[in-house]
Amino acid sequence: MDSKSEIVERLRSSFRSGITISQEFRCVQLSNLRSMIQENEEDILNALHKDLCKPKFEAILSEIDIVINELHYTINNLQSWMKPEYVDKNLATKMDNCFVRREPLGVVLIIGTWNYPLQLLILPMIGAIAAGNCVVIKPSEVSAAACQLISELIPKYLSQDCYAVVCGGADETKALLQNRFDHIFFTGSQVVARSILQAASVHLTPVTLELGGKCPCLIYGNVTIGAVARRLVWAKFFNGGQSCAAPDYVLCSKATCDALIPALCETLKDFYGKDPQTSLDLCRIVSQQHWTRLTELLKESNGKVVVGGESDQQDKYIAPTVVCVAEDDALMKAEIFGPILPILTVESLEKAVDFVNHKEKPLALYIFSNETSVINTVMEKTSSGGFCSNDGIVHMTLPGLPFGGVGGSGWGSYHGRWGFETFSHRRACMMRGWALEKLNGLRYPPYTDNKLSWLRWTASPKTTCLLM
Ligand code: NAD
């Protein structure tokens, strides 16, 4: 097997050859990627089932279709994204051609995680290929079946000179990071993000961080509680609660909480039956380590379990669980990333907003309300990577919306054009000819006040308006 530095060198020499530059090459690779997913759907579903017991329905929505849709969208829009973007000019640059050119960065590294093992590698990879880069992807070792399958499929469908898969855990990733990359795109935890940044700093490599945190879900004002419960339960327990943008906790008034709890119980029974462990529609926890982390968290909690709480280590099962908690509860300390939903009662909307604003900026923030003024207040007075009213996680599915965090929940974004932009350098180009040399004469010595005032006028925004 090639050593990691040999892989990076091979890709770098392909990049230098210019093979990835043409739109045609990029589109062929993207179409091949689409064939890879379509022709191997069954194997992909089996791998996801092996790793997470992912229901076929959820896997198709969140791993297969989201990737296929992104590929269609990117292939259809690539030509317009690659076009030079002409900018406003002033009198001093009237005769010039001034534009922004999107250029590939070079050899980029994409490090994925296990909860959506295909989506979280392939969606950024689509942006990187579309932008004309060579790409190394590093799947998570935790979702071992998906990792194995991806490492078999990618070389069969994509140019091996330009794209490579490196498998392994922390040690392999650290070894890989000793190489120089032109961009690192990391999805994972805040703890590991710090070591990624340290490694990147050696080569001054720019980094995109797709991290997590606690995504709040506020329920205030008038609400239709049955609909709230259905949308909330779906968003929270999709993928067994192992979604970075899943609602992590609920904030609502005591009265809303009293109405919400029976609605949640009823919805859980409707969705997963009397014994959710027998439901085929519920993911399992990815590993024994994460199962232990979550069950320990439940033990540490002083909250009141209102539904769920059961677990089975052998089956890596934890029932969809709802817990009423106090502000200092163990469940309110860090991101849960599992099927446990704490509810914290905070009487007023203002106090709930204040509560959110005293924490790290979340990856997503949700507000359920029938009142537009309540929704707008929450949107205007808070900050988060994404925002969605009256639903959860669905904002991630639209390629027109950038997906990413802010502050502690991440840096940078992707999906659709935003991924293409993340993996592109925006080169400022001014193509000057030889015209207007007399006008240029204004800037040459000997300097005079008269020349300066003319020069200031030609370069001022006023002259931009005159040219429109
Ligand atoms: P993790 O940080 O442990 O692992 C992520 C990747 O880093 C894996 O590929 C792993 O092999 C590698 N890695 C682990 N330790 C490393 C080290 N010391 N040095 C270098 N590389 C190392 O994350 P995780 O537990 O797999 O994922 C859970 C976290 O990811 C949660 O916080 C979740 O919110 C977040 N997440 C974010 C998004 C997003 O799009 N923003 C999506 C999914 C998950």
Structure description:
This protein is of the alpha/beta class. It folds into 2 domains: 4-211 and 414-425, Aldehyde Dehydrogenase, Chain A, domain 1 (3-Layer(aba) Sandwich); 216-404, Aldehyde Dehydrogenase, Chain A, domain 2. The protein has 17 helices and 18 strands. A 7-stranded mixed sheet has the order 10-13-14-9-8-15-16, with helices on both faces. Strands 5-4-3-6-7-17 form a 6-stranded mixed sheet, sandwiched between helices. Strands 1-2-18 form a 3-stranded antiparallel sheet. Helix 3 (41-52) packs across helix 4 and helix 9 (225-237) packs across helix 10. The longest helix has 27 residues, at 56-82. The radius of gyration is 26 Å and the shape is globular. Bound molecules: nicotinamide-adenine-dinucleotide. Nicotinamide-adenine-dinucleotide binds next to helix 7 and helix 8.
How are the elements arranged and paired?
Layout: H1 4-17, H2 23-39, H3 41-52, H4 56-82, E1 85-86, E2 97-104, E3 107-111, H5 119-130, E4 134-138, H6 144-157, E5 163-165, H7 170-177, E6 183-187, H8 190-202, E7 207-210, E8 215-219, H9 225-237, E9 247-252, H10 254-272, H11 288-300, E10 304-307, E11 311-312, E12 317-318, E13 321-325, E14 340-345, H12 349-357, E15 364-368, H13 372-381, E16 386-389, E17 410-411, H14 417-422, E18 424-431, H15 437-440, H16 449-458, H17 461-467
Parallel strand pairs: 3-4, 3-6, 4-5, 6-7, 8-9, 8-15, 9-14, 13-14, 15-16
Antiparallel strand pairs: 1-2, 2-18, 7-17, 10-13, 11-12
Helix pairs in contact: 2-4, 2-6, 3-4, 3-6, 4-5, 9-10
The chain binds nicotinamide-adenine-dinucleotide.
